[in-house]
Specification:
heterodimer; A: Rossmann fold; 2 domains; nine-stranded mixed sheet; B: alpha/beta; Aspartate Aminotransferase, domain 1; Aspartate Aminotransferase, domain 2; globular; PyrdxlP-dep_Trfase_small (chain B); iron-sulfur (chain B); cysteine desulfurase activity (chain B); Cysteine desulfurase (chain B); metal-binding (chain B)
Chain lengths: 394, 385
């Protein structure tokens, strides 16, 4: 079947009162972004409280649908067949052609749902329902009408042209990116952080990211892996500014001056501080991490409290109550899993102690950090100044 | 300064080879199977290359077959000859320190095609134990495959002795050698040495990637493993990779020019390098270091620094080396070869491989040693406690 348009259904946006146009505009913008690389000419527009994607000429149907499925804010994607209005006779024929091709078995229950935005049309919506229903019943003796729970809901919209559609492909839901500010994602290269970024972005938040690189302890490949992950997430979230911080000197300094079992927790506190610096500098309204309670020593309730204590911005942890299995499921869905499990060491694991503290005491940690007073400010400054910023696009 | 000491992973192409490959791609691009002149011209390159290789190995040019590289040659040698000689027996022998192209092919034959495989142990210097070979031979044995030079530590295998043992036991047992690291460093004469099949690759000898060859003695019964247009006497179907073949031929000719002199220079550099390495505390060089070892490979264990860390630290200074073998480096597992030679535990994940070429200079070695003297103590300060 050749479809000429897609009707985009959006759920939550519909109820946004006077802000509604902001959400719709963002949705249109994100759809355009998602279809940029797809073969075909697309015309994305708003009309009577709906968003349409009209496809001019030849286009790649699968790629288009895949692209649309990655636009947050879309609840359903309806492939539409557009026909010219050349009288009811012709419309009946067009509807039969449509039904024959879409439902060759011809034995389902159905219902016709007509709507007219062009009110001059000679028949009312109810009349269209009845008459087209009759035409279908005559042509498909095994089909039955069910107005309450039909298997096929044939929508007939009378505009300049007449739109026919009956299928709804589920979209990702959420809200269009750009409607809820930006946040800074701490991106590590593991399984969790890309998923965390995806989930927050799904609520309409644009992303920036910070990655901590520790050459020579972590390889160039580890960094490339993180860029690849950011790329995958940006297919949903839009372009991502990735800040690559050289963390080696800070890490080694902590290693030298602080108790070894506190290394990871102190390191994470400095990571949060640096990420927050870039967040504030770039107008981000919060930090995002992939932490989940109890997953590792640095993610116990006590450890989370200790890391949290260094930030003034809110820290969003969308995976906080998720099990690994559930996180992996999403990672597989958004296609980051394969990339995440490539075996390159990240900077959190290189010097990890055999028995890191699992219940850090904030006062003790702060006392240990006092050993760093001499040089840490300068090291932080250098790390921030030498940070490389990469703009990642899908 | 850029110092490339990873020549066992791959080498820089000779510029002359690059030019020739380009010319064959863009001007003499015919298909050797075509009837017209373009095809004949292309065929000339294939013939010339075969001729060159045949001369170097002192074999007949019809015993040379081109493949996509070492891995495919190894697959063809093992699978092709095992299948063709199944009726004579089902036992195969190889060493435990072969390249994965051999080990995994053997494993396939074992698990999927019902062959029995013996993996021979090695001594402390990484050389196959000949006693074990003697014990492993049995009436069912049809094929023995032992590499020429080990890729991870440069141990040169006692091929001549092994061939003698095998052929004395039963002359009809086939002997294959993966000479990917040996070809271009040693004069290899398969016929004289009794090697029935020999594998080599282009990109280890300053030739292109994606091209290799296999010598197959004309008496060897072998079946193809890829099927198609029956090129190369139906042993290896598929349009010949003419640019690659031409490049491989020229590279082989060039690397064997003044080979003895080049190898002597490499040995000189190697002993100079070894002397310098000796000054690093708690370090070891795996295997033999005298003239019986490969001239270009040095495998060094430096206790307390993980291979990958040292690799990246050297990379930072423009020095490119490899941790273990580049072919298996994506799996951060401990090297089977080092375990096989019984290397001390502290070196198992703390070993890097330096591999030189004819382009390596003394200045480069000096620079590498100075860099090591600087960064080893620094890196040792920070280890996982």
């Amino acid at each position: 079947m050749r479809f000429h348009s897609f009707l985009i259904k959006y759920g939550e946006i519909g109820i946004k009162g006077k802000n509604r146009y902001l959400f719709e505009d963002a949705l249109v913008r994100q759809i355009r972004f998602a279809l940029k690389g797809v073969d075909g000419d697309f015309h994305v527009h708003k009309a009577q409280g709906r968003v349409y994607v009209d496809c001019e000429g030849d286009y790649d149907y699968e790629e288009t649908v895949e692209g649309l499925k990655r636009v947050f804010g879309i609840v359903g994607i309806c492939p539409v067949v557009r026909v010219e209005d050349r009288g009811f006779e012709q419309l009946s024929q067009d509807v039969l052609d449509y039904m024959k091709e879409m439902y060759p078995e011809g034995n389902q229950t159905f219902k016709v749902e007509a709507r007219r935005s062009r009110k001059q049309y000679p028949k009312t919506s109810m009349e269209i329902n009845c008459d087209l229903g009759g035409v279908i019943l005559d042509a498909f003796p095994e089909m039955k009408v069910d107005v309450h729970n039909p298997q096929i809901r044939l929508n007939v919209e009378v505009r300049e042209e007449i739109y026919l559609y009956s299928e709804i492909i589920p979209g990702p839901g959420g809200m269009p990116v750009g409607t809820n500010g930006n946040a800074m994602l701490l991106l590590s290269g593991g399984i969790d952080s890309p998923v965390a970024g995806y989930m927050i972005s799904k609520r309409g938040v644009g992303l920036q990211a910070t990655y901590f690189h520790a050459p020579p302890y972590t390889s160039e490949r580890a960094k490339e892996k993180v860029v690849d992950l950011a790329k995958l997430v940006s297919r949903y979230a839009g372009p991502i500014q990735l800040h690559v911080v050289n963390f080696t000197d800070i890490q080694l300094y902590i290693y030298e001056k602080c108790p070894h079992e506190e290394l990871t927790i102190i390191m994470r506190r400095y990571m949060m501080k640096i990420a927050e610096h870039f967040a504030k500098e770039n107008g981000c309204l919060g930090l995002i991490t992939g932490e989940s309670i109890g997953q590792v020593a640095s993610q116990t309730m006590q450890s989370l409290a200790a890391t949290n204590a260094v930030c003034t911005l809110p820290v969003y942890r969308p995976l906080i109550g998720f099990d690994k299995r559930e996180i992996v499921e999403i990672a597989e869905k958004i296609d980051t899993f394969e990339t995440s499990i490539q075996p390159f060491e990240d900077c959190c694991t290189i010097f990890v102690a055999k028995h890191p503290v699992t219940k850090p005491n904030l006062e003790r940690i702060e006392k240990s950090e006092r050993n760093l007073e001499e040089k840490i400010d300068e090291l932080m400054k250098t790390a921030i100044e030498t940070t490389e910023v990469i703009t990642v696009k899908p | 300064m850029e110092v490339y000491l990873d020549n066992s992973a791959t080498t820089r192409c000779y510029p002359e080879v690059g030019d020739l490959v380009y010319k064959v791609m863009c001007q003499d691009y015919g298909n050797p199977s075509s009837m017209h002149r373009k095809g004949v011209d292309a065929e000339h390159y294939v013939k010339e290359s075969k001729d060159r290789l045949a001369k170097i190995l002192k074999v007949n040019q019809k015993e040379i077959f081109f493949t996509s590289g070492g891995t495919e040659s190894d697959n063809l040698a093992l699978i092709g000859s095992a299948r063709a000689n199944k009726r004579a027996g089902n036992h195969l022998i190889t060493s435990s320190i072969e390249h994965p192209a051999i080990l995994n092919t053997m494993r396939y034959l074992e698990e999927e095609e019902g062959f029995a495989v013996t993996y021979l142990p090695v001594d402390a210097n990484g050389r196959v134990k000949l006693e074990a070979l003697k014990e492993a031979l049995c009436p069912e044995t049809i094929l023995v495959s032992i590499m020429y030079v080990n890729n991870e530590m440069g141990a040169v295998q006692p091929i001549d002795e092994a061939v003698q043992i095998v052929k004395k036991y039963n002359p009809s047992i086939l002997f294959h050698s993966d000479a990917v690291q040996g070809f271009g460093k040693y004069h290899i004469y398969p016929k004289r040495q009794g090697i029935d099949m020999l594998t080599a690759s282009g990109h280890k000898i300053h030739g292109p990637k994606g091209i290799g060859f296999i010598y197959i003695n004309e008496k060897v019964k072998i079946k193809p493993i890829v099927f198609g247009g029956e090129q190369q006497k139906n042993i290896r179907s598929g349009t010949e990779n003419v640019p690659g073949i031409a490049g491989l031929g020229l590279a082989s000719k060039m690397i064997y020019q003044d080979l003895d002199m080049k190898v002597a220079l490499m040995r000189e550099l190697k002993s100079y390098f070894l002397e310098g390495l000796g000054r690093i505390e708690d370090s070891t060089v795996h295997g033999l270091t005298d003239d019986s070892s490969a001239p270009h490979i040095i495998s060094v264990g430096i206790a307390g620094i993980r291979s990958e860390v040292l690799l990246h630290a050297l990379e930072d200074k423009g020095i490119y080396v490899s941790s273990g073998s580049a072919c298996s480096s994506n799996h951060p597992a401990v090297s089977g070869v080092l375990k096989g030679i019984g290397a001390p535990k502290q070196f198992l994940d703390a070993t890097v491989r330096f591999s030189m070429s004819e382009f390596t200079t003394k200045e480069e070695i000096d620079y590498t040693l100075d860099t090591l003297y600087n960064c080893v103590p620094m890196l040792r300060k920070y280890t996982r406690r």
